Amino acid sequence: MKPPEGRALATIAMAIVMIACILMAGLNNVYGATSVNSTFTPVARVYFPFISRKEAFTPIPTSTPRPTQTPLPSGVYVLPNYSSYTSWDTLYIVGEVMNNTGDHLTFVKISANLFSSTGQLLDTDYTYIYLDDLPAGHKTCFKIIFSDPPSNWSYYEFEAPTYHTDGKPLPNLIIFNDSGFYDPSDGSYRIVGLVRNDHGRRVEYVSPVGTLYNSSGTVVGCDFTFVNSTHLDPGQTSAFKLRYYGRDYGDVVSYRLQVDGKVQ
After folding, report:
1. Which residues 6+ apart lie within 8 Å of 53 measured at CB?
2. I need a labelling partner for 52 at 20 to 30 A (CA). Which of 44, 114, 157, 264 fits?
3. Is residue 70 helix, strand or coil?
4. Which of 167, 182, 202 is the last residue of a domain?
């Protein structure tokens, strides 16, 4: 048996060892040491820049380039959206002519030639647009009629339109309250509407012109008429009706109206 003072010294020594172990464990937690015998070197900490949740999960917007529209060529020419149909041994060619110049045009004439499959010219004819004047930057429809065309015609071609450059702007005639109707009983199409004279002067032979389009933008009809009163005084309003026959117009999805007249 050890003497009492020996037991006291042993107890104190054990307490010192325990305190030392506790201190070493604490240092290991703080500095990340792997053993009590290693040098106390602090672990290097890497700091990342703070990124908010929105910035972290929102993709960077990218701009999608818009397709570049091909500019229309300059000059006066027939647009490529024309079509043709035959009714009662008559060939109708309908389309649009574009005035992409800086001049107001008048007496705009469209000519078409019929050819056989071998390229032989078989027939030719022409028409004038229904508008008296075709303003700069505008288009309008036309209809060429071949009565009793050659039975062996295969295709047609347009000549360059002819015109005068001393035209005038269209008078200030307002079309409103218009609508179009397809009649399945006979395949016809009609457009009705009103025209008001806002020009400030009397306009005679007021003539609305209507262009019909199918879903692909092809011209399938072109015609004109006069308003019921024929002439319009300033502020006067008159109705009109356009009727289209000769084919089944069940493919019409839209129409375009213009109006002209002679200013007094």
Report:
1. none
2. 44
3. coil
4. 167
Q: What residues make up the domain containing 44? A: 4-57
Q: Could you list the mean pLDDT of each consecutive 10-residue stretch along the chain, which spans 264 residues? A: 45 49 43 35 32 36 54 91 96 98 98 98 98 97 97 98 96 98 98 98 98 98 98 98 98 98 97
What is the CATH classification number for the domain harbouring 207?
A: 2.60.40.3230
119: how many CB neighbours lie within 10 A of its CB? Answer: 8
Q: How far apart are the first and last CA of the chain?
A: 143
Q: What is the pTM of this model?
A: 0.73
Cα separation, 211 vs 255, in Å, equals: 5
Q: Are residues 131 and 192 in the same domain?
A: no
* Residue where a domain stops, chosen among 144, 167, 190: 167
Strand spans (E) along 168-246: 173-183, 188-197, 203-213, 219-224, 237-244
d(CA 210, CA 68): 30
In b/e form, how buried is each residue of 220-250, taking b as 16+ CB within 10 angstroms? bbbbbbbbeeebbeeeeebebebebeebebe
pLDDT of residue 47: 30
Beta carbons of 100 and 76 less than 8 angstroms apart:
yes
